[in-house]
Specification:
Distance between the termini: 36 Å
Radius of gyration: 18 Å
CATH class: Alpha Beta
Order of helices and strands: HEHEHEEHEHEHHHHEE
Strand order of the largest sheet: 3-2-1-4-5-8-6-7
Largest sheet: 8 strands, mixed
Oligomer: single chain
CATH architecture: 3-Layer(aba) Sandwich
Shape: globular
Helix content: 25-40%
CATH topology: Rossmann fold
Number of strands: 8
Number of domains: 1
Strand content: 15-25%
Structural class: alpha/beta
């Protein structure tokens, strides 16, 4: 399969990426109990969670902007439907086409987040449900130049309530093992950030920061993994926890219904 991994698109095959990979995978594990009928994944990437969802759906459709990845997924999952395209809008899909929509770690990359949610609302059937995850800004360690914006739980809930009649906000947190890794990472990032005496991370255009961000992020993950290899590789999706206390969570887990 084509490799598109940066530190922003964590790999399940790179040991130092494992804590992030397992954190992202948790959303798909949780999604299984919500999935019914015709399912659409918006922003499927390389298909991290397809195996967890496809058997729960009547039909599975996915869209992502990375064309070569979509072509590979078509071959791997011939029972699904895969499309390549920029989003939003979701012009490939008719109104009221899906019972369930999932979109994990995508909305933070979208310029027009209101249009994004409106399009999800449009393609959902009446009574349909959508699940979204995104980083909790309160737990972010530094500016991520790949993100247009990040949200707090109240901010995302407020936006969602302007579109969906039913909104529930939860979060994905971690057990002691996860939070120990998080604190080590936080302290390491703080040491790196002290070198940015001009606060360039907040003053320069995002596009200028992506290469150094990716280099330093990879270096930091490798350093943490080398210092405690069993911690980094020993984290599993079971170590991440769905919590009703979204404001303290690592990721927001938004549930909306049409």
């Amino acid at each position: 399969m084509s490799k598109v991994y940066t530190t922003e698109i964590a790999s399940g095959h790179i040991p130092s990426d494992n804590p992030i990979h397992q954190r992202l995978l948790k959303a798909y594990v949780l999604a299984r109990e919500y999935i019914r009928g015709d399912l659409l994944e918006v922003g499927c990437g390389e298909g991290r969670g397809i195996d967890w969802m496809i058997d729960r759906a009547k039909s599975f459709t996915a869209i992502d902007k990375i064309g070569p990845v979509i072509e590979t997924l078509k071959k791997k999952y011939p029972q699904g439907k895969f499309l390549s395209g920029n989003i939003p809008p979701l012009t490939a899909f008719q109104d009221r086409s899906f019972d369930t929509v999932v979109s994990f770690q995508v909305i933070e990359h979208i310029e027009d987040d209101r249009l994004f949610l409106n399009e999800i609302f449009r393609v959902l059937k009446p009574g349909g449900m959508a699940l979204l995850t995104t980083p909790n800004r309160l737990k972010s360690l530094t500016r991520n130049p790949w993100h247009v914006r990040e949200y707090t739980a109240p901010e995302l809930s407020t936006l969602a309530r302007t579109i969906f009649p039913l909104v529930e906000m939860k979060g994905i947190s971690g057990n002691d093992k996860v939070m120990q890794y998080y604190e080590r990472n936080k302290n390491s990032v703080k040491r790196i950030a002290r070198l940015d005496i001009l606060d360039l991370q907040h003053r320069l255009p995002a596009a200028w920061l992506r290469v150094p961000y990716d280099f330093l992020n990879r270096w930091n993950r490798n350093k943490l993994s080398g210092a405690s290899p069993t911690v980094a590789t020993g984290i599993r999706h079971e170590d991440y926890i769905l919590t009703p206390n979204a404001e303290e969570a690592l990721d927001l887990f938004l549930i909306v219904k049409k």
